[in-house]
Amino acid sequence: MSEVRSNVRGAEAPVRELRYQRVYDLVLRLIEENGLRPGDKLPSTAELTKLADVSVISVRRALDELDHDGVIERHQGVGTFVAEPKLVSEPGRSGALLGTISDDARTVAFETRLVGLSVGMPGLNHVRALNIQEGQPVWEISRVRLRGGRLTVAERATIPLSLVPAIDEEQLADGSSLYELLAQRYGIVEAYAEQVFQVDRPSQWEREQLELSPTDVVMRVRGVSYTEDDVAFDSYQQTYRADEYVFYVQGRRSDSQLVRPGAGGSWAVRSLGSAQPPAAAAAE
User: Fold this and answer.
1) 66 shares its domain with 113
2) What separation, in Å, do the N-terminal and C-terminal C-alpha atoms of the chain show?
3) Is 201 within a domain?
């Protein structure tokens, strides 16, 4: 078996630095060391070219990567700005949907709209998920969530009438939490959930609810919520705009070991001996 040995003396081995990574790291340090906030303007392409001593091509690639990673926003003819942070969704956390979404910087305010409330006959997948008999009626509750007037989450809940004979439509239309209503009226409390995550193109229903195009990308969460007694009471689907969220699932530890769930920036491993342009010079 061949053995690979590390050479910790970076100067003894030739190092090929990726020039676009130099620009990427420079922008991250500019944001951090100068305390830049979402909406603050960043240096232009020409300025970054001089600061990092690289070509325009390297700067453009770095900006493409930063844009893709949600660090910056570019507006044609206006400039490059620090982007709004992505929201952190913790779908594994029990409770109401909005209680699983957070933003490290600010309190997240959502508007809830009730799209539909009806009684119907569940398909076979819902029958199996909820462990009910075929032909047993269910509630189907459809809602969307808006942040700053922008549609950002669409969800459907499917709940057996045998467990929940009545639902107050007016309270749901006013934005009340479905799970809080179930707890208050029927003593139904979520203890845990089974979930499946899927990155996909949006379905027609999802496109209509979130005003998406067929080429957009969504994160779809399908799940089943259970009580402490292992009774399945909700077979649900949640659809998120994939470009606005990061998803965080935690194991047994009670404290986060991943820096912060929404931590941005580069997770690259830099080659030994590669240089870093000083951010202080960029701030002048």
Assistant:
1) no
2) 53
3) yes
Say what the pTM is. 0.65
Express each pLDDT in 201-241 by its tens digit. 999 999 999 999 999 999 898 989 999 999 999 999 999 88
- 77, 204: one domain: no
Using pLDDT thresholds of 50, 70 and 90, give the confidence band for residue 136: very high
Q: Where are the beta strands (DSSP E) in the chain?
A: 72-75, 79-82, 87-89, 101-102, 111-120, 138-147, 150-160, 192-200, 218-226, 232-241, 245-247
pLDDT digits (tens, 9 = 90+) for 88-115: 655 666 555 555 555 654 556 778 999 9
**Length of the chain measured in residues:** 284
Inter-residue contact 276 to 25 (CB < 8 Å): yes
Distance separating alpha carbons of residues 146 and 154, to the nearest angstrom: 9
Kindly give, in sequence order, each residue whose CB lies less than 8 Å from that of residue 61, ignoring residues fewer than 6 positions away: 20, 23
pLDDT single digits (tens) 32-62: 888 888 889 999 999 999 999 999 999 999 9
In degrees and rounded to multiples of 5, residue 244 shows phi and psi of: -115, -5
- Residue-range definition of the domain harbouring residue 74: 16-84
Considering the domain architecture, whether residues 78 and 95 belong to the same structural domain is answered as no
**Per-residue pLDDT, 1:** 46
For position 209, which CATH number holds? 3.40.1410.10
**Is the domain of 205 the same as that of 93?**
yes
Q: Residue 244: helix, strand or coil by DSSP?
A: helix
Which range has the top average pLDDT, 56-70, 92-106, 253-267? 56-70
Q: Does residue 95 share a domain with residue 20?
A: no
**Cβ distance 220 to 247 under 8 Å?**
no
Burial group, residue 48, by CB count within 10 angstroms (0-12, 13-18, 19+): buried
User: Whole-angstrom Cα distance, residue 113 to residue 143?
Assistant: 6
Domain check: are 128 and 20 in the same one?
no
